[in-house]
Amino acid sequence: MIRKLLVCFFCLIICLRLSADNDEFCGIRNTAFKAGESITFTVYYSVIGIYINAGTANFTTTLEKLNNIPVYHAVGTGTSNSRYDWIFKVRDRYETFFDTAYLLPLKFIRNVNEGGYKKTENITFNRKANTATSTKGTYTVPNCIQDVLSAVYYARNINFSQYKIDDKIPFSMFLDNQVYNLYIRYLGKEVVKTRYGKFNAIKFSPLLVKGTIFEGGEKMTVWVSDDANHIPLRIESPITVGSIKVDMMQYRNLRYPLSSKISVR
Prior knowledge:
This protein has helices at about 1-15, 150-155, and strands at about 40-45, 50-65, 70-80, 90-100, 105-115, 115-125, 130-135, 135-140, 170-175, 180-195, 195-205, 220-225, 230-240, 245-250, 260-265. The protein is mainly beta. The protein has a 15-stranded antiparallel beta sheet that branches. Strand 13 and strand 14 form a beta hairpin. The longest helix is centred in the first third of the chain and has 13 residues, at about 1-15. The two termini are about 30 Å apart.
């Protein structure tokens, strides 16, 4: 179950980006984050209404060069709570390299170690040819396609003020050698109280693909900070057994003050 929770978390974060097929957002400029940023989340799991600390996830960015192109190197890690390692130990690492000019990925790496199961994935994106090449082959992808981690940073640059409540924002992503076409439904703004504190937040619900963890549909809710940083604050969703809650618990080197914060717990 710990493995499923952490996989859940990365699936949730995927759903934060905008449509790569919408020219208005193809090659969006970064105004939300900077190199050196670090954000940490706690993943909670519940079966009977009592949430337990199941693991943590962390996202960091640095400024580097890839093939002489300036890129953001973002790293996302997922780790099971050490007290549950004897049941199921998880040590997952996701990396993406995306250019600083248009926030489009050039390379994606996934290394997972889940209960002894290990998998490595390495994807190279060719923007001119609109292809993604993995160890399984080369695949045609839409213009401005994102990977599962670059999507997080791309999404944070959404201008939510241009949408009305119940508007659908379509998006596409490349995952496990497939292109997925989904959407998020904008739900407006509200105050959300998390384990870290209380925030003014932007709220939306992503359409999910039916799978072994999620039933599919719009049953997940996501809150991001209603300020220029647009960092994820809370994610809630039922799963096949119980439910999960993901809360932002620590941040460093944000580009702007976290002005959406009303109070700290």
